[in-house]
Amino acid sequence: MGKTGESLSESMYAIHALGLAPRRSAPYSPAMDYALAILLSALAMTLIVGGRYLLTSGFFAWLTGRVRPGHYDQLKPQIAREIRWSLLSAAIYGVPAGIVAWGWQNAGWTKIYTDPELYPLWYLPLSLLLFLFLHDTWFYWTHRLFHRPQWFKIAHAVHHDSRPPTAWAAMSFHPVEAVSGAIVIPALVIALPIHVGVLGLLLLVMTVMGVSNHMGWEMFPRWLVRGRPGKWLITATHHEKHHELYRGNYGLYFRFWDRICGTDIGLADIGSRFGGDAGGKRVRG
Fold first, then answer.
1. Kind and range of the H or E element at 85?
2. pLDDT band at 264, cuts 50/70/90?
């Protein structure tokens, strides 16, 4: 090689050594685009879940202030703790929800449908009841698991640290427990068909019941709470008893599993005419 060639080689070596050589652009990767889109969807859903929590719990906390003035006045440090845990839970709930939402729109991962004529019209109310029952079933058995001493200490103690619970406590979970709650609806929409409108109604029921059951007072009328519907439906008066005794009343929407498994301990007396005690009935853990 001549002097010119040697000089060129030396120059190129110096350029590379100094990091001045132009870099080749990385090859296009569709996987990176998918990953970014899914990440953005999860982030958006986290913001939606967090915003929904703040708006709903904030509304019912305001309502509590109007209906039960001073009810939360001594609980401000507890409420701040509930909000912190709940916002962390919102981030955990948002991840699987965002992934599944992206998969529904872009990859056909779910059985969510938009055409109401795709299935018989009677399936619309049936699917709502089916999803509520399956969610309630999952919640009942995982809730009982979290009341085992080891699991309670690891995770569920965070939720029961709210004494008494407030409207802000609905999502106040340890991350371990939040994961168990976050996966159930995404799993169900992958497995079972549901109309997007019914799914919206399901989420509304989940949100309202989750918050109102922790308010510390009963907003539903006596005929519902103490009548035949109340023998099978869960409201604040039923769930408050669970928080009082740290056992029994493990269901979310329905008293079905509590009744057949012998863990229904009746209704709490939460300062309203709807309350009633469990009559000293013994329950299994």
1. helix 76-106
2. very high
Give dist(CA 205, CA 157) in Å, integer.
25
CB atoms closer than 10 angstroms to residue 84: 12
| pTM of the shown model | 0.84
Give the residue among 14, 86, 98, 13 at the shortest CA–CA distance from 53. Answer: 86
Q: How far apart are CA 275 and CA 217, in angstroms?
A: 9
Domain positions in the chain: 30-212, 217-285
Burial 19-31 (b: 16+ CB within 10 A, else e): eeeeeeeeeeeee
Pick the closest to residue 112 from 123, 101, 122 (CA basis). Answer: 101
* Residue 217 contacts residue 236 (beta carbons within 8 Å): yes
Which of 9-23, 62-76, 115-129, 227-241 is least confident?
A: 9-23
Residue keyed to tokens 């013994």: 282
CB neighbour class for 230 (10 Å; exposed up to 12, middle 13-18, buried from 19): buried
Please give the structure tokens belonging to residue 277: 């005690």
The amino acid at 185: I
Q: Which two tokens stand for residue 230?
A: 């109340």
